TrEMBL record:
InterPro entries recorded: CheY-like_superfamily (IPR011006), OmpR/PhoB-type_DNA-bd (IPR001867), Sig_transdc_resp-reg_receiver (IPR001789), WalR-like (IPR039420), WH-like_DNA-bd_sf (IPR036388)
Keywords associated with the record: DNA-binding, Phosphoprotein
Translocase found in the keyword field: no
Domain of life, source organism: Bacteria
Domain called Response regulatory: residue spans: 7-120
DNA-binding region ranges: 129-233
Designated name of the protein: Response regulator transcription factor
Keyword Membrane: no
Modified residues (4-aspartylphosphate): D56
Species the sequence originates in: Patulibacter brassicae
Residue intervals of the OmpR/PhoB-type domain: 129-233
Amino acid sequence: MTAPRRTVLVVDDEPQIVRAVKVLLRGAGLDALAAHGVEEALDLAALHRPDAAIVDLLLPDGTGVDVCRGLREWSGMPILVLSAVDEEDEKVAALEAGADDYVTKPFGSRELLARLQAALRRASPEPEEPVIAVGPLEVDLAAQLVRVDGREVHLTRTEFGLLRALVRDRGKLLTHRSLLREVWGQAYVEDVATLRTHIANLRRKIEAPDGADGAPPRRLIRTETGVGYRLAP
């Protein structure tokens, strides 16, 4: 039996963007459902129950943040937001409202599709692996052991908590606030300086420095300036 095609809600008031995204989705075997504003998007989502959403941040009757909040009242579907370079505060607000990732305009079609497919995979995860491998990095979640190139690396409890959060959602952008909330607790969600210090320590332990052993630098944790971090998928 052929699996049903997945449907993606595309929310943008620019017709050319909607047309381009619809063509991209059809080429990937996905159906598109178009909406041009917040209210229309929420109505269509409630009626058709799409599998994911791609949402522009600036809409005629509100923002993509409003769409994220509305969808998150009843759905865990993957949400990607489209943003301009200078909309950093809105990007952070959308991620805090439940968006899974963002793509900056103008965007490449391959990047948008890759991020969407990664989000769809995370939405239907396989049973958690006892050991998660990302390139040279191996993380045993049950035993709380970390190895790099087969060599055991000692992490503090805080460093392991950060790595566990990143590796469980590898490829997904995690905001400063979400990492601080998970590892330190709600009272510390504004302490970005502390987070940066521990991320720097974690990087020193799991990433190869420039020119180490003649190898090129290895970057596993990627910084999204002003927003958060993601572990390379």
